[in-house]
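Could you help me review a protein record that somebody else here produced? Here is the record exactly as it was handed to me:
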Amino acid sequence: MTTAPSNRLFTKSEAIGFVILAVIVFAILPLALDTFRLNLFGKYLTYAFVAVGLVLCWGAGGILSLGQGVFFGLGGYCMAMYLKLEASTPENTSIQSTPGIPDFMDWNQLTALPWWWEPFHSFSFTLFAVIAVPVVFSFIIGVAMFRRRVGGVYFAIITQAVAAILTILIIGQQGFTGGVNGITDLRTLKGWDIRTDSAKEILYFVNGIMLFACLLTAQFIRKSKLGRLLIAMRDQEDRVRFSGYDVANFKIFVFCIGAAFAAIGGAMFTLQVGFMSPSFVGIVPSIEMVIFCAVGGRLSILGAVYGALLVNWAKTTFSESFPELWLLGLGALFIAVVMAFPDGLAGVYTDKIAPRIRKLLKRGPPALPAANAQETAAE
């Protein structure tokens, strides 16, 4: 007798994995770390948004993007623009030549706020722009590339070039974007001071809740028919196309989803850290984001989160302990994980840990001695 495949959102092992991650994020880390370290891990979690999106794009869809920092940065800059305008009231900027505009605009001799900054006075518009701007940009790239069947290494190189171009553009337009320094000195969110310890702790939990919302969305996509089609496209794209499906549309959709996840992470990064700069947009951070995904396991959304946490924790630890050698240490960690565990941390769990857990769950309680068994039965 055959059984129909399960349509459940979670298998038992997946549900256990989500619970374990939730306990780590919402209980263990807040209880074990001081505010400074907790804020650091909050920053690490913002990178996990990008890694989860890469699992869908690269792991499921076979779309390797080396420009996810673009969408991370766009989301972060949209949030930073709102926060900067809130901090640039005429009262706070009275010493400037032109009060009421951001300080870097005044330094660059601008005398009025650019028209495209004006809508970011609205928090509602900012929340909309955080998602809409990166998604529209990714849609344009996706249509231009996937409609022409550009993929593989060519697509990866093009996204890398886009990251380089955007970085140069941001740095070059210093009067409008803050240039190489970025947008700094962000103070309040609708009057709430985001620089205090209590605010950083609250933002950490908000960050965690939004990450789990993205994880649930990614899990739903993976378990849906779309998720199965993405895997089929990754393995046999021509066969899926000959079956009557528009492969380009599916690629565009999942690429936009990855951009949206990265943008949310960028916005939360700006709130968590208090600034945004082009150093998070370019080629190097984009490649690092791929490393997070690879170390965690490009086929596992939970593994991507652990990969982002581990790599960034190692980066911080190495840079604090060995400031001259931390890049070598980080590179050695990446090489060791990839060579020893090709499927990343998720592969370690699947191959080594999960079988033992299943074995323990299947093992029943020890048998009672005969006398005790009879007494138990009599009761």
Q: What stands out?
A: The chain is about 70% helix and 0% strand. Residues 12-91+98-108+116-362 form one domain.
